[in-house]
UniProtKB/TrEMBL annotation:
Lineage start: Bacteria, Pseudomonadati, Pseudomonadota, Betaproteobacteria, Burkholderiales
Matches recorded under Pfam families: ABC_tran
Domain called ABC transporter: residue spans: 3-251
InterPro entries (alphabetical): AAA+_ATPase (IPR003593), ABC_transporter-like_ATP-bd (IPR003439), P-loop_NTPase (IPR027417)
Gene3D superfamilies named in the record: P-loop containing nucleotide triphosphate hydrolases (3.40.50.300)
Species of origin: Telluria aromaticivorans
Protein function: Part of the ABC transporter complex HmuTUV involved in hemin import. Responsible for energy coupling to the transport system.
Entry protein name: ATP-binding cassette domain-containing protein
Keywords: ATP-binding, Cell membrane, Membrane, Nucleotide-binding, Translocase, Transport
UniProt GO MF annotations: ATP binding; ATP hydrolysis activity
Keyword ATP-binding: yes
Source superkingdom: Bacteria
Length: 272
């Protein structure tokens, strides 16, 4: 299996001290090639869970295995090798602003290169065709030689996903990949990610705020709230009532009308 979490609790460090748990006693098993969406309100723990699956957070309690190994029982070098089999795509990828897109995308291959080849590739991209092909899958083929800081937020997000295409990862951990995209691009982007994962038989775990997209695209939905798994079901078994309960009381109240925005005032204003 790809992941096994048993009673896993994760805390962030705040000012050097343990904060209250961001994830509480999670039990989760993810098989190779599975595609699942993490949904839940803001602060539910989706990003923390993805980072934990990427071996970026050491759990405080419980048992955790990736490809049958406990990463935190391994040497640092072995854990590094294990991490190279995983790819975490953050919502806002930290891409070097002054770099060309081609160099940034090809950086996905750095963990698998020798030091000198990696160094040389930073000076002169070694395989621009591969970078172009990966970018083209997200509609960004024409941005190959653009500077990263000239990309829009949505383009930067897709640039991060193009990196994923060039990695050798066996598990894709993708955090809100469509948060900066319009509906048509969102559909295309999710379909591209899912197709790549299927072809490689890679595991795909994707957090989404767009619940209907999650229900439409993913066969398994995991609902998180307050750091706990509220449900973990095939999509057919997830009802509207379960979704409503997951997000209950999470709606932000609309702001009170401004005293000057009364209909009278608007009508008067409209005369000018
Ligand atoms: N670096 C951090 N340091 C301290 N606490 C953190 C840190 N990152 C997240 N948290 C806390 O952990 C909890 C889970 O946050 P997380 O970012 O995982 O939620 P999320 O479901 O991804 O939220 P969103 O949908 O808003 O991105 C929250 O209470 C959050 O305040």
């Amino acid at each position: 299996m790809t992941y096994r979490l048993e009673q896993l609790t994760v805390r962030h460090l705040v000012a050097g001290l343990d904060a209250p748990p961001a994830l509480h006693a999670l039990d989760l098993v993810i098989e190779p090639g599975e595609q699942l969406a993490l949904i839940g309100p803001s602060g539910a723990g989706k990003t923390t869970l993805l980072a934990t699956l990427a071996c970026a957070h050491k759990p405080a309690e419980g048992r955790f295995s990736v490809f049958g190994q406990d990463p935190w029982a391994l040497s640092q070098a072995a854990r590094h090798r294990l991490r190279a089999r995983l790819f975490l795509a953050p919502q806002a990828p930290p891409l070097p602003p002054r770099q060309r897109v081609v160099t940034t995308v090809l950086a996905a291959r750095l963990p698998h290169m020798s030091f000198w080849r990696a160094f040389a590739s930073l000076v002169k991209p070694v395989d621009p065709d591969a970078a172009h092909a990966a970018l083209a899958r997200f509609g960004l083929g024409d941005k190959l030689y653009s500077r990263v800081d000239r990309l829009s937020g949505g383009e930067r997000q897709r640039c991060g996903l193009a990196r994923l295409m060039l990695s050798n990862a066996e598990a894709f951990l993708v955090d809100e990949p469509i948060s900066a995209l319009d509906p048509a691009l969102s559909q295309h982007t999710l379909a591209t990610l899912q197709q790549e994962a299927s072809e490689r038989k890679a595991t795909l775990v994707c957090s989404l705020h767009q619940v209907e997209m999650a229900r439409a695209h993913f066969p398994r939905l995991v609902g998180l709230r307050d750091g706990r798994i509220v449900f973990d079901r095939p999509r057919e078994a997830v009802t509207d009532a379960m979704i409503a309960a997951l997000y209950e009381n999470e709606h932000v109240q609309p702001p009170a009308p401004h005293p000057h925005d009364t209909p009278d005032r608007i009508a008067v204003g409209a005369c000018f």
